[in-house]
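Record 1 of the preview.
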Amino acid sequence: MVVGDFPIETDTIVVGAGPGGYVAAIRAAQLGQKVTIVEKENLGGVCLNVGCIPSKALITAGHRFHSAQHSDDMGIVAENVKVNFDKVQEWKAGVVKKLTGGVEGLLKGNKADIVRGEAYLVDANTLRVMDENSAQTYTFKNLILATGSRPIEIPSFKFSKRVIDSTGALALKEVPGKLVVIGGGYIGTELGTAYANLGSEVTILEGADDILMGFEKQMTSIVKKGLKKKGVDVVTKAMAKGVEESDNGVVVKYEVKGEEKTVEADYVLVTVGRRPNTDEIGLEELGVEMSDRGVIKVDKQCRTNISNIFAIGDIVDGPPLAHKASYEGKIAAEVISGEPAEVDYLGIPAVCFTDPELATVGHSEASAKEEGIEVVAAKFPFAANGRALALNETEGFMKLITRKEDGLIIGAQIVGVGASDMIAELGLAIESGMTAEDVAMTIHAHPTLGEISMEAAEVAMGSPIHIM
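->
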């Protein structure tokens, strides 16, 4: 039974409590807005519940197991190392619970009202929130849409017990003996690597010429070398054709160079991209401008064509990154509060938690060239760094991209252990307008991986100490 309601007034409503929405709500509340945040599922969204956080927990567990089995050259010999996957999943769930509970506490602490249910726009200042038992109308001055995205389902690979998406891959009850991954992007490669480390026999099928197409070949070649050592079979230019499913597994059909092949597995994981959640919330009826793919068109202040409606995260242009969504959430909240904020994406990093890790920020050599910028690309290898040697993790390099005329840092790429943490320093350098000399003259603790930034900066200046 739907109960009649009287409208509740609020300044700003945020729809979606993922890393974009909850951050936007908190910042808007901090800036004096009366805020209501609407979420139909779990606080923290895909990222905290079934994405970034649980996948990194699974990746860490895989690293621990793999290291225990392969540290003989360091004098560490372990026998009969086993994976208690129930315990792994229990630990992973504990990590998620701590973070999602933290998000709820932060929202309440900042006096944002949390409302559960599905939102539907009535007009540019009104929406209804519905659950199974009731519906409530809210009026607002401003709206921030942060509804996120969902995995794309291929018609010939309908999701089922053994045809799974990334959410299903994170919730498996056992480590698959064999796993086929369709899609060699960052999600497929990360999860494929995690299960390979946990003992699965993994096959990655990628339709493009290479996996991890968002990163330079110099970087991905090192990752592919690592995958090969783990026994992962990477098949590129492969077109997935269909799947036969039984109670015990799947047979995946695919085509390479005109030849049809099959591969058997316990599960097939489909990671061919994500679709924005912009349907069924009333956007088209309201006249919000979108692309053919359902991506909402926004300006540099995250504002749609309707002046009091903003959109952030996976539902607008750009890569589906949690930290991009959070950044845009802050911008939108500040604009609503009258501050002169707008997005600048040059300093946003992209990271892939493969073995070894990949990270990039700002310009690459190629993108700088496209814009007519003459650059110096300065590389420094992990193999020449004392900390990397002591970690027994010497694969990889850092490449610093500086403007030739003045040494201004405009980009960086890292492949190697700890790349996900190291990239932050270079992002700060770009945001702060620092030169190679600024980084080179910054004293870095020894022995640390951070010294690689200093060393690469010295290479850019033409005066390296630790390589010829």
